[in-house]
Amino acid sequence: MVRTESVLASALLATLALVPAEASAWCQMTTGGRRPGPGETCVVATPPDSFPLAWRQRCTSMSLSTFGSSTLSPDQVADVLRGAIATWEGVRCDGQPTGLHVEVLAEMNACERASHFTGDRNVHSVIFVQDGWVTERMHDARAFAVTLVWHDPQSGEIWDADMEINEERGPFVVCPAEGCADGEVDLPNVITHEMGHYFGLAHTPDDALATMWASAEPAETLKRDLQPDDVTGLCSIYPPGALPEQCDPAPRGGLGLDCQREEGCNCSVPGLPGGSAGGAMALIVVVATLVAARRRK
After folding, report:
1. Cα(271)–Cα(7) distance, rounded to whole angstroms?
2. Which GO MF terms are attached to this record (predicted)?
3. I need a surface site. Which of 39, 191, 255, 293 has the fewest CB within 10 A?
């Protein structure tokens, strides 16, 4: 029998790691979903019991949902997403690129919530959630956004990743560099952080200036720009030349913009009763969260 597990990353502590804290501050998501205990910084992958999460393909694609922002147009959100992607794609590892490429599709999808369809078409979606953040999706009420990462628990290969953005924590805007007005949230700050989760990075435990720090003030813009800790993490997960040269951005099973499963297809939808995953092996979803904090920009 196959199984699906939903694991919520700790909102305030680093959650998942590839290497011990003394070797590096950055952390990598892992299979298994164990949270760090008291005094721990990162959870270390220990094959064959757990594996670090990463894409095994160089190119992927993302699409905006028709369930969009109440304050920004689809074009504005797409520009923010492209900017965040460019920030991560611009990382150089000893002068060499990682080779990662994420295409933002012109076509929008009809996904109301994050989901993965095993054995069917999929889409890596960006969805703005108007209501039901806690009651229906069971997300942290403090969270600006979450990224849900579906992966193979037997290898750590990422199969799918969707972002859900909490409109109840908005309004989301594009702030000037010096920060937002009171009550506004900088969408580039949030999306750049979430793209780190998309690539498999977890929260850094001890660098409050890093993009992958777990919390943010609503008005901050710090996370738009990567810090050395973020760069080291991405270069360690995706060293230049490690990914295949072939560039096929199609999601697993092909592109499906309607978010409807075909008859007989198994799906995984966190937060829905009866959500399940099918296929030859279990499918796991990890949920990574950026929460509001009271600290200076």
Report:
1. 11
2. metalloendopeptidase activity; zinc ion binding
3. 39
